[in-house]
Design goal:
- There is one protein chain.
- The protein has a single domain, classed as TIM Barrel (Alpha-Beta Barrel).
- Strand 7, helix 8 and strand 8 form a beta-alpha-beta unit.
- The N and C termini lie far apart (about 45 Å).
- The longest helix is centred in the middle third of the chain and has 17 residues.
- It contains 13 helices and ten strands.
- It has about 260 residues and is α/β, with parallel strands linked by helices.
């Protein structure tokens, strides 16, 4: 890994050289969900959370129009898009952002979803490979999002398969779901793994999820709805950070979160 790529990766995940976790704030949901609850007015929700996130996973539209230009936060730019939630099958994604546009927007990492086992598996793998070829040319790290369709199980066998395929194709970081036996997945994937927060769950459960993932080898979390849909998003991202970065017990982190309500 040459200097530029190494530097960008460490900016997105500053916990890597420190041996701790990193917190990525996921706010790219709108590319298929529209004005998702909690992000109806993106700028109002996102800006107060920026000081507590290590990086921001975002679409180019919201980056352009909702994030202050002088914000010095590493950007993980969503490069794929396809169907919306109005379609039964949302796995028909393709590469829809030019690598040159990612460079113009100063992205530190690019992200793409692949749908292993779906009807559109071949298309997403080929499109992902095109992004890898282009991003590697410019030394930009690639995040593979191992998306899961409605008819797929989030079990160890499937998630390990999807994650390992992503690495074999050239991904530098894997974003996947936490599952039973997750430590086996992280051992079989020779690049950093971060977990998706997924759907909104109770705050105490989300903090426990983050703790379990880090304990089992994850190098960070990419949480969105479990932060910006919380009763107090600012306190929630601070609680997540204390668990992921500082190693605070999730029960203690939840107690501190409650005190801030």
């Amino acid at each position: 890994m040459h200097w530029g790529k190494h530097n960008r990766l460490d900016r997105v995940m500053p916990g890597l050289p420190q041996g701790t976790g990193s917190v990525m704030l996921a706010i790219d949901h709108g590319y298929f969900m529209g004005a998702v609850g909690g992000l109806e007015v993106p700028k109002e929700t996102i800006v107060p959370l920026l000081p507590y996130a290590d990086s921001l996973m975002i679409t180019r539209g919201i980056l352009q129009y909702s994030i202050p230009k002088r914000t010095n936060i590493p950007i993980v730019l969503r490069m794929s898009s396809g169907n919306s939630i109005l379609n039964e099958d949302m796995s028909c994604e393709k590469l829809c952002v030019d690598i040159e546009d990612a460079i113009r927007m100063n992205a530190s990492m690019v992200a793409f979803s692949i749908y292993i086992g779906s009807e559109w598996e071949h298309q997403t793998i080929v499109e992902f490979s095109k992004l890898i070829n282009k991003a590697k040319r410019y030394g930009i790290p690639i995040l593979a999002v191992t998306a899961v369709g409605k008819n797929m199980n989030r079990d160890l066998k499937y998630l390990t398969l999807a994650s390992r395929i992503s690495v074999e194709l050239g991904a530098d970081v894997i974003k996947t779901y936490y599952c039973e036996g997750f430590d086996q997945l992280t051992k079989s994937v020779p690049v950093p793994v971060i977990i998706a927060g997924g759907k909104k769950i109770p705050e105490a459960d989300a903090l426990q999820l983050a703790h379990n993932a880090i304990k089992d080898g994850a190098r960070g979390v990419d949480m969105g709805r479990n932060i910006f849909k919380a009763e107090n998003p600012k306190s929630m991202i601070q609680a997540v950070r204390s668990v992921v970065v500082d190693g605070v017990n999730p029960a203690d982190a939840f107690t501190q979160y409650q005190k801030a309500l």
